[in-house]
Amino acid sequence: MKPIKLAALVIMILAFVATAFADDVQRINKDTLKADMGSYHIIDVRTGSDWKGSEFKIRGAVRLKGDIVDFTKNKGWAKDAKIVLYCA
Predict the structure, then answer these.
(1) Domain assignment present for 66
(2) Does 28 map to a domain?
(3) 2 found inside a domain
(4) Cβ proximity of 43 and 28 under 8 Å
(5) pLDDT at 22
(6) 42: closest CA among 77, 14, 3?
(7) Domain coverage including residue 77
(8) Which residues contact 25 (CB under 8 A, 6 or more apart)?
(9) Domain count of the chain?
(10) How far is CA 59 from the centre of its chain?
């Protein structure tokens, strides 16, 4: 199989898998988050340059550096903690 066809196949498979798991992720809108900020751990997952260049940041959010599982363990958060990830 040619490398381009193989790459296209891999991308299609990854896209399918990603969308299959996306249904399991709960979404929250900004009004709900604002109303109950104390119930959530808010993590900003933007890269350093995107984060530095943005004028929009959620007060109290922490920046993710590395793996999310290791990050939450290092923070000492409970396994069932409510975590909000945001990137914009």
Answers:
(1) yes
(2) yes
(3) no
(4) no
(5) 58
(6) 77
(7) 23-86
(8) none
(9) 1
(10) 17
Give every CB contact of residue 63 below 8 A, 6+ residues apart in sequence: 43, 44, 46, 51
The region that residue 38 occupies, defined by phi over 0 for left and psi between -120 and 50 for alpha, beta otherwise, is alpha
Structure pTM? 0.62
Kindly state the tokens that stand for 65: 């550096």
- Cβ within 8 Å of residue 54, ≥6 positions away: 46
Assigned domain for 14 exists: no
pLDDT digits (tens, 9 = 90+) for 18-43: 555 556 677 888 888 888 888 888 88
3-state secondary structure the chain: CCHHHHHHHHHHHHHHHHHHHHCCCCCCCHHHHHHCHHHCEEEECCCHHHHHCCCCCCCCCEECCCCHHHHHHHHCCCCCCCEEEECC
Longest Cα separation, the chain: 54
